[in-house]
Specification:
Layout: E1 9-11, H1 22-32, H2 34-37, H3 54-58, H4 61-77, E2 80-89, E3 94-101, H5 115-129, E4 134-140, E5 144-151, H6 154-162, H7 175-186, E6 193-200, H8 211-220, E7 224-230, E8 235-242, E9 248-254, H9 259-269, E10 273-276, H10 279-292, E11 299-307, H11 309-327
Helix pairs in contact: 4-11, 5-6, 5-10, 7-8, 8-9
Amino acid sequence: MSIPFLENYNFLAPYWLLGLALIPIMGVWYFTQREKRYANLNLPSLEAFGKSSLRGQLRIMLPILRTLTIATLFIAMARPQLTLKEEEITADGVDIMMVMDLSSSMLAQDFTPDRLEVSKAVAADFIDKRKYDRIGLAVFSGEAFTQCPLTTDHRVLKEFLGGLQCGILEDGTAIGMGLSTAVNRLKDSEAKSKIVILLTDGDNNAGYIKPMTAGEIARELDVKVYTIGIGSKGAAKTPVRRRSNGEYVYQMAQVNFDENLLRELSKMTGGQYFRAVSKEGLEEIYQIIDQLEKTKIEVTTIKRYSEEFYLFALLGIIFLVLEILLRYTIFRTIP
């Protein structure tokens, strides 16, 4: 039995709440027996009486007050308690930097609607699963920068992730720059495990830091790098140039990227390389990473209870007294 305003309460004797089922039965009985409780007065016409008085119209308050009395007393008998819960994290989790490629090729339509939108959606699902981890976001194309530093505020992180667009940076694919930006954010981390998840669909062709140099720095700082190459096998509808109004011109182009580079970056840092050729494949990759990067987090839960039955008992008494006063004063009837 679900009562909206009682959702935050715990009941020591919840079986008393079954009594609330009697209320609709009482309502049906009240209206079916109403005519039997009052004597009939036969008149040739009701014109002399006109419309019913305000007093007569307000008399419906009596059964309403009786219903409220019964409902609140049943709730009081169920012993409601307000539950206060606290959680303490007593161990470090994992610090994760996600690195997203924003080069124009990420708009290729071999994924629906394109590689970038699918990558963003799957990454957001991954973030939701890492409740206690600090996660940050770096982006790159021809250059790189930190979109969101390491944080446990995953709502804000997902807002930054959802707002990513191609074209906000100089075009190109600077994998070394993207990786080094992420590693720089992890260098002072005291987490038990530090990882980078780098997703790209192209060859390194820009930036002043070589990917292998960034990989060596990651290895020295004990940062594990997982690389994901995204793109179907064969040809795909891909942006090849941009018009003066900003629109991309698409043509069929062969899907190519440096898998050997991505594989070597992961191998040298203790991570793994993955190839995603579909949305389902990308989801599986993030699931694998999620399982590989688990650390034991001890959560101490402290519960405190506040007795609230007296409030409902007091309301029940107030409703009952008010009904009695109204019944034998304003709404008093002649026997």
